[in-house]
Batch of 2 targets.
Target 1
Amino acid sequence: MRLIDHVIAGGGPTVGGRRGPVFNPSIGTVQAEVALGDRAVLDRAVAAAQAVQGEWAATNPQRRARVMFEFKRLVEANMQDLAELLASEHGKVVADAKGDIQRGLEVIEFACGIPHALKGEYTQGAGPGIDVYSMRQPVGIGAGITPFNFPAMIPMWMFGVAIACGNAFILKPSERDPSVPVRLTQLMLEAGAPEGVLQCVHGDKEMVDAILDHPAIGAISFVGSSDIANYVYQRGAANGKRVQAMGGAKNHGIIMPDADLDRAVGDLVGAAFGSAGERCMALPVVVPVGEGTAERLIDKLLPEIEALKVGTSLDPAAHYGPVVSAQHKARVEDWIAKCEAEGGQILRDGRNFTPQGHEDGFYVGPTLIDHVTPEMDSYHNEIFGPVLQIVRAADFETALSLPSKHQYGNGVAIFTRNGHAAREFAARVNVGMVGINVPIPVPVAYHTFGGWKRSAFGDTNQHGMEGVKFWTKVKTVTSRWPDGSAEGGNAFIIPTMG
Ligand code: NAD
């Protein structure tokens, strides 16, 4: 059985230790094993990171940026192979896997501009002979703990900015699809990053806890489900680390009566069912405003859903593939049953769905459920599968209050032709990322990504200038070069600029 091993500077292959299975969700078989590391493995990675970090931080930012340019070139040159590898472990279709890689590369493009982003501030003449300047210095050793659903994009969100800022970085990807993170680490070395600047360690809770407790790691970025995000945030922060921890989501799509329905329906179907609904920016809840809007919406949605093709991740005709594991398939099907028991009306049922010839794969068919209400558990919780719930709202204010009151606050979208309604919605909704006629409002790399409420713990977002702030510490220097003529002040009172 192929072993997916840690990538540690100077480290040989792992001998002994725990291992976990890596499935091909399209056919339901184990295709590799991944090493599950512990504190001893992490200690080796940290020692290698410590050995190189000072030299890397002292490398001028333009040279660090050149490594990023070369990394981008190498990833692009390997795009097809990486996308197929990603699809084979995650289950998303190859075209979507390319999107996963591309969105990560856009953060690398941002990181190519790091010399500009790291420029500090300067005040000349803050007082007599006094100048003040600030600089951003790397945190030191950073770590990233990432989820299964974007095994290329999310690691690149983190290490792209962290490394460009002069940190050494230890990546702990999801143990369910670890091969692409390994390849990205190898390509970063090939691109010219010194050994130890980017390393990849694998594992489960044991490795995560080792990272959270390691005294030499200064900053931790986490993306995953909310309970674990909260745990990571609390334990990391209690250990004195800087922590940002992104959690789960339940994003709403509001359909106003004046929306361009044909377009909105196409957008909705892609956002609800693309990647089998396993995106934190998916739209698993649609809120038609007014009964007439609801009826027209359902009439248009049903045939679009009927036309969806679910197939293996390598099937070029498939709109989406399997979910990630047999356990997750069972969980999604349980939520469908629960929603039905709570009073939801199933218009399209994706349970017990098996594409012919792939009976052992982890497939869930597209599911549409009407008359879902805010009191239901199945509305309150994240399902993370190809399930679209319809919550009918009588008016704009009710529609606005639904995502605003929900426990999650990652993304939301409104579909309308009314500029005033859109503007009001964007200003008042209690959610971190808003789309106006844009179903998946993942901000571009030079802006910043982050939700509100239980979708994010900590206060600094991913990538863009927020990312630069997270991965650096500010140092402010106040300097005085007197010409010798000025009289000294009273040294016993707090200095002021008069
Ligand atoms: P997950 O929480 O199960 O795993 C995330 C990471 O935590 C993995 O690296 C895993 O090894 C580790 N982990 C798992 N159990 C742990 C435990 N008990 N203690 C410590 N660490 C543990 O998440 P997932 O299933 O891989 O990913 C899907 C989730 O991620 C969804 O909830 C989704 O909404 C969320 N997500 C959020 C964002 C965002 O930016 N807000 C983006 C993508 C995914």
Target 2
Amino acid sequence: MKVGISTKRLEDVAADALVVGLYVGETKLPERLARLDRAAQGQLKRVLDAEKFQGKSGQVTHAHADGRRIVVAGLGPRAETTSEVLRRAAAAGVRRARDLGARTVAVEVLGDRLTARQRAQAVVEGAILGTYSFDRYKREKPDKTVSELHVVEPDARRAREARDGMHRGEAFALATSFARDLINAPANELHPTDLARAATELANGSRLGVKVFERAECQEMGMGAFLGVAAGSEQPPKFIHLIYSPAGRPPAGRKRKKVVLIGKGITFDSGGLDLKPPEGMLRMKYDMAGAAAVLGIMRALPALKPPIEVHGLIAATENMPSGSAIRPGDVLRAMNGTTIEIGNTDAEGRLTLADGLCFANTHVQPDEIIDMATLTGACVVALGQLCSGLMANNQALANRLMKAADAAGERLWQLPLIDEYREHLKSEVADLNNVGPRGGGAITAGLFLKEFAGKTPWAHLDIAGPAFTEKDLPLAPKGATGFAVRTVLTYLGE
Ligand code: BES
Ligand code: ZN
Ligand code: ZN
């Protein structure tokens, strides 16, 4: 979808469809809509009246006026317009325009409480994410697609600001779609090697550095926890390290901030010898959603140019049962020397992340670490499908992430890392066990990771719930959502 800013009056923009907003309580049509209504011989007003259109957020309807579609999207109460209201209105409106056969769509940008930059960003994010579809494996491709989007900011003095917001929105949405494509790809077509190739291709096409460590190199570095998980798979594991460094030097006397992002990259989680039951295994191609989020984020950074150094780390492998797989009761040794007894081979994510955290602390030594992982079913039980768990050893970092999530329209809820629960991870034979009791499973997993984060400020996003959706959402059809990409991009861009 090509996007551009237009400062013409809405009705003067050449497009197959116009998407306009209506607030709750605008019973008398505002002048801009009244003009369109006159062009439509009063048909717009008649449709709105007949359908008792109230302008509620999420509501959408349409009329036809001399060959053009006029789509009306509800914006809720005028005093309460948030970026998320605009995203959802743009998504529903552009989706309707597309379904009506429009190829070029103009969207009116409203929202009193938002800056022109925020408004344009939200509209572009909504338009692109709301029309995302994954049809790589379908013989019949959808014939209806929107190829051009005009973001209409009628205040010409705000055009620069709006253009800036538009570019941000496009970068955020394309990064999210990129992650969705990787996550939606089936596990037989997306092995660790393919994740490594995706990372290498990203780096070759832009200003990112990349290094992929093979099994032997990981062995030399002592990544026994990661390689233990990989032991049962015929697919070679890959440890991926991407680097974004901003152009130029930091201001004199100032050190540049360094952030590490770690994504859980289990391309398929069968559970290992502690095999999952069929219902539990069905969706496990999604178990690399954290890794895909990291790749999406890294992909957007060269365009967004934040003044910080960002490292993306992915310990990519499958978790499979076989004669070479790790067994319950085995003991693994992580890169920092910590020994781990395997209580359950299905708690594999934390093992791969443990070596990722060790690598970050020894080889990158960042100012902070954020990991993203579809880590526990327990977190889905606790918070459901629309909310990610947040755990951190540093409250300031947690607070900043919650603020970023709020702006991005993604939900994070902090869970406490209760010290007393550490005893749940005690082992008779090793320094740690990789599982605890059922209760508080998301927290025990967080406490396990905390052991490897050390003193570095660290935050953990358990995205097992929101990483994919079983039903269509306002900004995502069934399947992968690309959750965490926009939150973390917002965070890095502050
Ligand atoms: N990948 C799963 C977690 C998961 C579950 C993600 C449901 C998405 C939806 C993870 O590797 C896992 O299997 N965790 C176990 C841990 C348990 C053995 C302590 C779980 O949550 O059951
Ligand atoms: Zn598992
Ligand atoms: Zn897993």
